[in-house]
């Protein structure tokens, strides 16, 4: 297995874990339950793509490219402006946001180079 494929699989798994963990954290502080369910579905899909890549289905990397591009350029900016900033974010919220965005860049680059 190529190095970039391993990086892509790890980044997808980290992104799924980070996203779900953050949504559960927000739920414990009064956040919406629907966010947890939505992130759980997304995490399941990301893990399925990672497993497929580990099994040698290389064409799944294009799904990872599409995911990274859509979330980096559409979903995350909308989420930051519509959800993050109005909720008076703390250090953990900013750390999550920056880390999630960095992982999206890693996923996009690794998927193209894999």
Task: Describe this structure in a few short sentences.
The protein has 114 residues and is mainly α. Helix content is 83%, strand content 0%.
Radius of gyration using CA atoms only: 14 Å
Oligomer: single chain
What percent of residues adopt helix (DSSP H or I)?
Answer: over 70%
Low-confidence stretches: none
Anisotropy-based shape: elongated
The total number of structural domains is 1
Order of SSEs, N→C?
A: HHHH
Range of strand content: under 5%
Query: What is the β-strand count?
Result: 0
For the biggest sheet, the summary is: none
Treating each run of at least 4 consecutive H or I residues as one helix, how many helices? 4
Determine the N-to-C terminus distance: 9 Å
Structural class category? mainly alpha
């Amino acid at each position: 297995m190529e190095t970039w494929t391993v990086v892509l699989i790890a980044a997808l798994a980290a992104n799924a874990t980070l996203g779900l963990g953050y949504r559960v954290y927000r739920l414990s502080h009064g956040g919406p339950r629907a966010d947890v369910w939505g992130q759980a579905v997304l995490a399941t899909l990301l893990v399925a793509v990672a497993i497929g890549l580990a099994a040698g289905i290389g064409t799944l990397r294009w799904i990872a490219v599409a995911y990274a591009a859509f979330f980096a350029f559409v979903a995350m900016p909308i989420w930051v402006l519509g959800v993050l900033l109005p909720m008076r974010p703390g250090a953990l919220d900013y750390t999550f946001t920056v880390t999630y965005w960095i992982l999206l860049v890693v996923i996009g680059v690794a998927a193209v180079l894999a």
